[in-house]
Amino acid sequence: MIGGERYKFIIQGLKNTFLITIVALAIGVAIGIVVAAIRTSFDKNAESLKIRGGIGYGILSVLNSICKLYITIARGTPVVVQLMISYFIIFAAADDGVPVAMFAFGINSGAYVAEIFRAGIMSVDNGQFEAGRSLGFNYFQTMWYIIIPQMFKAVLPTLCNEFIALLKETSVAGYVGVTDLTKAGNTIAGRTFSYFIPLLSVAVIYLVLVIILSWLVGILERRLRKSEH
What per-residue confidence (pLDDT) applies to 128? Predict the structure, then answer.
């Protein structure tokens, strides 16, 4: 397997896998914050805005509907289909599949991260909102300075688990010509006509990565529990 410098395929594939995963998670977190903020704002303020009247309720209602539609589509269709639509339709002129994979996995991850963040925001006591208002903050300032920091602490272990799931999901990036870890193993197998060692090596690498990341998540959870006491 190492003969002929085939190991370089594995190194390159591992590099692309990590790069796609990290950037996609960053995109997912950015999208997740915005979508979760819109959805929780609607859930918490819809009745009061409706009674008050005006354009505010209409705008928030439309934004909430768009966010719900996005989450439904992103979570209701296979990620590999979203990846191929991004590569062959949306970015049909793209020469490099890595940025397209980052985009596709980021959009998909954003839907799951949004629901994680929404649950975290809803778990924050309403008294925190009232405390923010008493300090003179408006709703968005209260969310940014008080609620979101507390939300991040509550959902950080779940967010780390989403990172682990995303790492494994990137194994389908090879469908658009990206040399990820799985594609690298498959390429080596095709050149050597031996599938056992290359694919077993890929499986072992994924397993080791997941074990290490799970161990780190466990440490993080224990530290968060200690900080609460």
Answer: 83
List, in order of start, the domains of the chain with CATH numbers.
3-228 (1.10.3720.10)
* 64-78, 101-115, 139-153, 194-208: the lowest-pLDDT one: 139-153
The token pair that represents 116 in the structure block: 């994680």
Return the exposure string of 83-101: e unless at least 16 CB atoms fall within 10 Å of the residue's CB, then b. Answer: bbebbeeebeeeeebbbbb
> Token digits for 204?
């072992």
Instruction: Check: CB of residue 21 under 8 Å from CB of residue 163.
Output: yes
Give the pLDDT band (50/70/90) at residue 227: low
pTM over 0.85: yes
Distances (CA, A) of 214 to 6, 107, 155, 224, 225: 29, 24, 15, 15, 17
Distance CA 103, CA 28 (A): 9
- Asked if 13 and 201 touch (Cβ cutoff 8 Å), the reply is no
